[in-house]
Amino acid sequence: MTTTLITGANKGIGFEAARRLVAAGHTVYIGARDAERGRLAAERLGARFVLLDVTDDATVDAAVKTIAADGGVDVLVNNAGIETRTEDNGVPTAETVTADQMRNTFETNVFGVVRVIHAFLPLLRRSAAPVVVNVSSGLASLTSLSDPDHPAHFYPGIAYPTSKTAVNMLTVQFAKAFPDMRINSVEPGFTRTDLNGNTGTQTVEQGAEIVVRMAQLAPDGPTGGFFDVNGPLPW
Ligand code: NAP
Q1: Which atom from ligand 1 is nearest to the alpha carbon of 34?
Q2: Which one of 118, 216, 223, 235 is most buried, by most CB atoms within 10 A?
Q3: Cβ(7) to ligand 1 under 6 A?
Q4: Domain locations in the chain?
Q5: C-beta separation of 141 from 234 below 8 A
Q6: Which amino acid residue places its CA nearest to atom 21 of ligand 1?
Q7: Strands 182-186, 226-228: pairing kind
Q8: Concatenated DSSP letters of 117-135
Q9: What is the mean pLDDT of the chain?
Q10: Rounded-to-integer distance, Cα 91 and Cα 216, Å
Q11: Tens digit of pLDDT for each residue in 95-127?
Q12: Ligand 1 within 6 A of CB of 161
């Protein structure tokens, strides 16, 4: 029996990934920072709820204790993420970005991933087939954003893409440090969720596909990579 924790799974891509993994037979914990939203989501899916704010040590430590008492975890999906917006609902650009906007974005997207991986390491190490999926973004790719012919080249944001580039480096470094675990970054694709004001072009079913696939990796699967549904992506 595989036990999976998905952070930020009360809605969006995380919720859909949880739905799919419950259907695949995983015991799934919906990690959510809001108890009511989290409980409701877990009830709808036949999943378990655990209070978990990735920016808060106390909730993360309590979540480790709860899940340890229930028997541990095999798969950790670091899905919780934010895109910091400006007052006019734009993204902070090279002209406008502030250190506070960067810090705010990194607090969830980067430091949150470090906090959660670090806290769950002892439980993951006890698993026979530990897997970590870091939900990154195509906007993390230095190769794509510096290529004038790539569709993502136009994207002017600073805070969100740099945070996801940092997530990719976490994937590389953690994967080298823990070769017995499968640790990969994934790019869901531009997906209709609250994160982008529901402007995405894909459904959550499409967005969750690579998350679900990499959450089910066998021990001989790849590690330290960056993938979308079509295969490996350039860093
Ligand atoms: P979403 O619908 O806004 O969902 C984000 C989830 O993260 C929500 O459940 C939210 O909880 C949770 N969250 C935010 N801050 C949190 C915190 N401090 N602690 C715990 N949970 C927190 O967005 P989404 O599109 O599904 O995003 C999921 C992941 O996919 C993110 O990492 C995002 O960067 C990535 N991604 C999305 C797209 C896209 O086009 N949508 C593309 C590439 C990558 P609340 O309900 O409490 O706010």
Answers
A1: 47
A2: 223
A3: yes
A4: 3-232
A5: yes
A6: 8
A7: parallel
A8: HHHHHHHHHHSSS-EEEEE
A9: 97
A10: 34
A11: 999 999 999 999 999 999 999 999 999 999 999
A12: no
